[in-house]
Each structure stands twice: as structure tokens, then as C-alpha cells.
Records
---
Amino acid sequence: MSKFDYNELIDNETMLQSRSIFWDPDIYQDELKQIFNRCWLFLGHDSQIPEAGDFLRTYMGEDDVIVVRGEDNEVRAFLNACSHRGNKVCQAEWGKTKAFTCSYHGWAFDNMGELAAVPLEEEVYDNFDRSKLGLVPVARVQNYKGMIFGTFAEEGPDLVEYLGDMTYYLDVILDASPEGMELIGTPFRVEIPGNWKLPVENAIGDGYHVAWAHAGAMRVVGTIGQGRAETVLGIGKDNTGYDDSGQMHVAIPPHTVLSTLDGQSGYALYDNPEPCIEHLEKFRPSAIERLGEVRGKQLLGSEMHMGVFPNLQIIQGLNLLRVIHPKGPGSFEVATYSMADKNTPAHVKEIIVKHVGQTFGSAGILEGDDGDFTEAITHSPNGYATRQMKGWLGMAAGRTMDWEGPGDASPGIVNELCQREFYAQWQRTMLAETTSEILPEKIEQKEAANG
């Protein structure tokens, strides 16, 4: 039983959050158990491991995990720990192999997790049963339209139930064409001395900081102040004026979406958006046939940030997918992948990869800005007096708008609905006694427009 009262740390009525949730090492240990040991977590994409023997390494919480397509073509995930003494059996980030061999004593496991070879087996062991000493599997691994997720929970909602109505929005990038989405190239990885929740809430909900915190970056890429535009995402240069029409935050508990609705402002931050928009408009008619008018016209190509609880963010327009891996209460790794529809021309994919590196790569101008803020917020509670303060997320509370898609919508990108919903779900998961209690109680579903 936890020593913390999570109803007190997060007050959903007053919209206050205790600063200790970013700092306290014991709360972090509760998070590893309650959240990262039970929620569905993104592991990878089919495009990364298309053939038998292909594998990649990732993390579930702080657990090092191997995701591998076995000789039988089934995708499995295993703890990266030898069943003998616990040493890592794989040091490579990705690759292709028939076996994972421990460098300590030489135990070898095939790409389906079975113990295949043991040095001096007959000479030093009696009644040795290899079948009981395979790699430890992740309890459940499931796939949604190419997206591979896993959970350590043996019971509870399956992946589709966990994603719920979020699939309506995910399909804008996963199902806009018969070929679907792919991840391009290798991910950018950055470790930042901050708490893992801060980059999540920043990406899924904080439109307030964009034109202010990133003002310098906007000028560098020419988005603002070089004659191309005097506003970005409805926000005026230096936060002078704001138009919230044609934008929204949407709560689809346990997940969130923020989006513009103009069908092309996702490319507003590019320094060379024309080839991307030209391809988008050629592609749009067939996408409308698959997705319907609302998603094909209003969402496809818009600046859309999708937050899959707890640590996956998919940002259409910027064309990136980010996973935040916690590395302790005061540190996280962000892995950023470039993404595109598979039918995207090669020269447009090159522009996308360049832009992702320029903005959210290891030396990206936007990642660097945000990293400074997450570090400062995480470590300011090192001081006792500062630790007694609370954060407040009251922006646009009570504001609603009509929206034909699933979820409850609120107008504007400068809004804090998605952040409030993230912390409400964080609290719900920390309090849940069983995995089945992680999801909120079902509410009456709206009939989604256009499928």
C-alpha cells in the first residue's frame, strides 16, 4: 500500500498539482509499479522489424526489453536479462539475429526466446531443463495497424479496448492509405535531467509556450518574422494576440488530442513546406475516401498532437513520434522517430527527416528549449519551501465546443484541457487496485462523424 494520498497530490476540482510528483523518489517507484508495469506501452513499429530475426531494443519503464520477430514471423518481447545471472543478452540497439548470447557465460537464446545452447551443459549440469529457462516474455504483445504495444499485465483490457476512441484519431496517420505509416531511419535519443511527466504534458497540451518559449527558434526557421507569417497556430509574434477558432483540445480518457482543423498547418514550422503540402494535396482525395470528410479534410495535414497514455506522443505535421522513457525521478530519455505515410515520395521524406532533426533531434532547436524548462521545473523543488508550492492548470476550464468526432472538445490550442486530463489519468492509474480499474468508466459515446 502506498504511503501517498494521490487524491491529495492531484486536486481535479481546483486543478492544482503538488510539486512533489516531479521530485519524490518514492512516488517515482510507485509510478514504475502502477503505471509502467500495467499500462500498454509502445514498443515499436512493424516497419522497424519487417523480417524474421529483426529485432530492436526499447524500455518499458526502466526495464530493458528486446522486441523481435521470430522465425515463425510472430513478434514477441522479452526482458533483456539472461535467465542464469541476469546479464544483458543483447547490447545492440537493433539488428538481425538468430540468437541472443549472454557475454558472461555464453548462454544462447533463439529469436523466439527459447534457451538454445549452454556451454558445458552435459559436463556441469544434471537433469537440466532448458524449457524452463527461456527469456522472460512480456506478458502480452499486440499490434494496432503496425503499432506494436506491450504490457506486463497478464489481465486487464486488451490493446484495442485500451486505445478506445483514440483509434479514430490514430487512423488519420495509420490508415490514410492502404500502405499505412512507417518510421524512417534511426531515432534521435536525448537524455535530459528532468521528470518524465513534464515532456509528456509539454507535447500533448502546452500550446501556450510555443510562440514565447520558442520565439527565437521560430525566427531561425523563418516561421515568424521573415515575411512568411506574423502568426503561427493562431498565436501572434511574441504572444501578441490569439485566435482560437479552428483549433481544439480533445479529451478521450485516458488519451488526449490537440489539433488545428485547417488541414495543412502541420507544416507551419517547416522552412521549406511547399513540397510537403504539394504531396499532401495530391494524396488528400484518396485519404478522404478512406477516412471521411472530417478527418480527410480537417485533420489530415493539420498540426495534431496525439497523446497515448502514459508516454507516447505522435505529432502529425511535424511528422514525428516520441517516446519518453523514465530514468529515475529526475531524468528521462526521449526517443524521437521520423514518420511518414509509406507512399510519400523520397524527396519529401528527406525534408521530413531533416526537419525532425532540426527541431526535435539531439541538437534540435525546439528540444533544447523544452529541455531547459523541464530541468528547471523538476529540480526547483529541491528546496524545501519551493517543494510546498503547487502547480495550476486552470486555463480554458469549462470552455466547450461542438465537435463531431469522439471525445469532449474545448476550443483553442492555447488551452490546458489535455494537461488536466493527463494528470487525472495519472491519478486514476496510481489509485487503481487492479489493471481493469486503469480505464475510466465508460461514458455515453458520441456517434463519430464519417466513420
---
Amino acid sequence: MLTELTRLDLRLRRRSLIGYSLGIAVYTFVIVALYPAFKNDAGLDDFAQSNATMAALFGVGDSLTSSSGWLNANLYANFLPLVVLLLGIGYGASCLAGQDEDGTLGVMVAMPISRRRIAGQKFAALGLIGIPVAIVAALVVILGRGFELTVDLGNLAGVTLGVLLLGICFGALAMLVGGLSGSRGLALGISSAVAAASYLINSLAPIVDWIRPARYASPFYYAIGDNQLENGLRLSYAAVLVAVALALFAAAVLAFERLDVH
């Protein structure tokens, strides 16, 4: 029973994963295919410069007409992280608290397997659940070379990894809240609220002086907030995201071991 729970949870979600992957493939292809129509439109950059706050909220940090700027504004700074967070937080909230509310977690803990191992297999599933969506998006972007998009493959791999780690961090937070409260709704609500606040801090930091120091407390900064598509994902940034995810998971294990399962 080393990986059965991981495989079971992923198998139960295969249809939604296929649906999300197909959806992100279509959306990314539209973004890629539209780029040639806008790459020489100087008005886009003028609009972004004259509406700095609005541009920051959508993650526009550099020229909208460059390949990386176009992809950041339409995909990697907002939409793709949102989809990966939906998957991660949704799974993190349901894998412990949700199954407790459904009455299936009680059956699971009655089996000859420790709660720590159950949590470990749930965390493994959390680590895998966002991969199809992120990989599909990256593959479509690579195909975008035929539409005049030029992106460094190493940087693309880096920002893809950053987005995945971001989803794991907030999914682990949802596991922790679920393990502490036994409530799926509370896990969803708190994790989503923290993610939204983190996004706003990272987005507004470049234009609001008093928020700028707080960006280092936002996981978004380490995943996508330093123009990783143009500069690559720093090893230290990836290490921060991994450390946060592991710390939250360790706390979730402790909470789960004390959870009064129904």
C-alpha cells in the first residue's frame, strides 16, 4: 500500500484533470495564435504605462509586445497559477477534511496504515495533480514558435516548476487547515483568502512603496513575481517554495494525527 492512495485519488480526478488540461491547451493556443496580431502594437505598451496599477494587478511587468511580456500578462502571471491553485487548494481541502466529512476518511484510518503514511500519499498526489495542466501549457507555448513567440526553454521550464510549487504550497496549506479544523469549507476559504492576499501583495509591490518589502512573504514572488519567464527561476527561490511546502506538510501531518476522525 505504498502508492495505492495516491493512485486512487488521481484516478478519481482523472476526468477533471483531462478537462482542465484540454481547457488550458485551447486557451494557451488562442493566446499564442493572437501574438502576431499584437506584437507590433505600440498602443498596448502605452496603455500599460498609462495604467500602471491596472497593469500590475494583471501581472504586467514589462513590455506587453515582447514574447515574455505577452505570455506573462495573459498566462503565467495570472491564469495558469489560478488554475493550478484551484486544483491544489481543491485537493488539499478535500483529501483530509473533505473525506472526513464524507465519512471515507474513517474507513481509511481503520486500515493497517499509519496516518503519517496516509498524509504522505495525499501529499504525493498533491504534488502530481497540477503537472498535466502546467506541462500542456508549456508544450503549447513551445509550439508557439511557429507564431513568432520566442521563449527560452530553460526559463519556460523554470516558471512551469515555479507555478507547480506554488500550487503545492497552497494545497499543503489547505491540508493543514483541513487537518486542524476537519472542515473542507474552512480549508477552502482560508487557503483561497491567503492565496488572493499573496497575489495582491506580489502584484502591487512594484508600484506601492509600503507594500514592496512584504513581497518577500508572498510565495507568488518566488514562483512568478520576479519575471521568471524572462530571468529564469533562481535555485534559491525554488528552495524557498519547497521549504514552505514541506513545513506546511509537516504541520498538516501533526494536525492529522490529532484529528478526531468521524
---
Amino acid sequence: MSAADELHEFHYRLPQRAAGQRPGSHPGSSLGAGQEFVSHMSLYDRPDPRRLDLRASVRSTTGDWLVRVNRQRVGVTVQLLVDVSASMGFGARRRKIDVAADFVESLARSAFRVGDALGMLAFDQRERADLCVPATLSRGLGSVMADSLRQCTPAPGGIEGLEDALQQLIGREALVFLVSDFHWPLDRLGAALDLLSHAFVVPVIVWDPAETEPPPHDAIAPLRDAESSVRRTLFMRPKLRTQWRDAVAARRAELDAFLSARDLRPFFIHGAFDAEAMSDYFFEATA
């Protein structure tokens, strides 16, 4: 059984109402053929005899025939923003970009099941037009997106690439998954995220165990920065391992605080994507 066959769908739902007329699974703001009762209206004002409410009409003090008015659930556009910079090409057992591809494939299956259109934008130090997929409702779209990510060659990146890719999403209402290791300075990230004020954004932070946990034994460790290719040699010892773990914890706390200040909650992927954990993320968001 391949890794793709072992992927599972996850359940997601917007915690807020979305505009749109296409039927789907998310709470909508438009009136239609849904199950959420809003009010009664006169049959003359809303001529839809299929929704005639005889019991309410009998009780009406005005003598009007009343119809039930419901709010319908709608489908939304789901947009992926995937970082394909050089640091995403790192990984001890599997590259982070391969783990991100697993998530993309699972998301595509989940989106097709609930009738949401899915699109993808990718970036390194600029937008990667060769990896752009317009938002479409298609069963086989996930495999195409995931394969293109697995086969791409990560290149040096930066926050400029994210800013470039975001230009296509400004002012659009959507569910946006921003997939990256977030190894950027945070001073320009806030302004970039502000461009997605119309969207519900899920920061998906992909880390590899080899970058969060230092080597267990004392030894000389040759290290290379994935983005700049700068090499350093360190002698791994207990004090350095403690500093390594403290730096990882501090970075995670910094990201949590930074994103929480913008009412965003990060979802961490540590080595492998867990569909059940992603379902729990949305259950907590909509609770």
C-alpha cells in the first residue's frame, strides 16, 4: 500500500458564515433551501408554496399564508499557499515538502467530499507560476497538486515570495491554508497576513524532528543552512543540546503569540501529517 493510499480525509468547516449561492457544507449568509430556520414571511412576499407552513398560517393574526424562510449552507473556495523554498527541502527521513504534499492530497479529498473548489499557489523568493492550479472542483486534483510538489526542486526563498503570491487573493473570501516552516523574520509577516483579512487563514507549520531535536550523542556536527548554504561545525554537548531545545521552544512560543495577536491559531505538523488532529483543530475552532 502506498503512502497516498494511507492518507485519510479530515473534517473541516468554517467557523463563520460565508457568502455564496453554491450549496455546500459551511454556514452561509444567504437564504435558500437549507435547514436553518430564519423566520416566516408572507407567501405574497416570498412566493414559494413548497415551504408553506400551515400551522404557523393558522396562528397568524394577520390572516396571511406564511412560508418558512431558511438559510442555506454553501460551498467555499479553499486556497493553498505552499512554501517551496529551500528550507522545505530539508528532512531526515522525508522532506518537509513531501509531508506538505501528503497534507495537500488529504485536503483535496476532503474538499471534494464536501463540494468545495480547491486551488493552489506556491512560492519561494517569488510566486511559482509553474505550480499554480486555479480553484477547481475535481476528484483527481489532489494527486496532481501533490505530485507537482513532490517533483519540484526547492529554491532559495523569502517573505517576498509570499507577498507576491498573496496579490492574487487580496479581497477574496476563502479558506486559506498557508503551508510553510515559517522560518522567516516576523517583522514583515504581519503586513502580509493583513492582505488576507477577507479570508479564514489556517497557518500550517511543517517542522522536521531533525531540526527540533538535537543529535543525542556528543560529537562533531557539521551543519548547513538550507537557505543560504552557509556551513558551520559544532561540537554537540549537553549545554548545546539544551540551548537547541530552548531555541525551538522559544520560536514556537513566538509564533503562537504572533499569530494569536491576529486571531490565528497555528496547526503544527511534526514529521508526518495527522488527519485526525486536523479534524480536532476545526472542531475546536467551531465549538
